[in-house]
């Protein structure tokens, strides 16, 4: 099955490596220049949930269309960095406390989702150049559906991270208050 994708990229004279993995259906790793495909999941969806992807003609067709999308990520040289940058630059102290402000959380959420959609739309567009003209329409349907799902999963993940941040902050603040009270009490005794 991996051979299908390998032969496909070779037909464009490309040197990109293809590997099987058990993550998302498809992924492109820029550092290693590897496209990863979850062959088991692709086969499973095609054989058991074909009603969800009526536009796919065969497992081979599915593998090729996903590979085209991943080649699109590969061709996106200005690819936006993963969304985790929005969390990484927030370290500790006052900046971190911004997560207690609802508007700030909403803003982060918006940025994450916009970035996610932008990345995927670019891959979709650039990937088109590899798609057989007969399959373009179905490739478009696949990408539209995929981006919606991806957006949903980013929404869930980001929400989870933000909630975790808020919880940690509450704990931290509580500790600070306790420490302050303790120190006050000690001072009283000391006097
Ligand atoms: Zn993608």
What would you say about this model in short?
The chain has 191 residues and is mainly alpha-helical. It has helices spanning 2-10, 39-48, 59-75, 85-88, 102-127, 136-190, and strands at 17-20, 26-29, 34-37. A three-stranded mixed sheet has the order 1-3-2, covered by helices on one side.
Task: Summarize the structure in words.
The protein is 63% helix and 6% strand. It has 191 residues and is mainly alpha-helical. The chain has one domain (2-190). Strand 2 and strand 3 (34-37) form a beta hairpin. The protein is elongated and about 85 Å long. It binds zinc ion. Zinc ion (ZN) binds at residues 69, 73, 120, 123.
Largest sheet: 3 strands, mixed
Structural class: mainly alpha
Rg result: 23 Å
Q: Which ligands accompany this protein?
A: zinc ion
Q: Unreliable stretches, pLDDT < 50, 5 or more residues?
A: none
Q: Quick check: average pLDDT?
A: 91
Helices and strands, in order, run as HEEEHHHHH
**What proportion strand?**
5-15%
Strand order of the largest sheet: 1-3-2
Specify the number of helices.
6
The general outline is: elongated
Distance between the termini: 78 Å
Helix content: 55-70%
Number of domains: 1
Beta strand count: 3
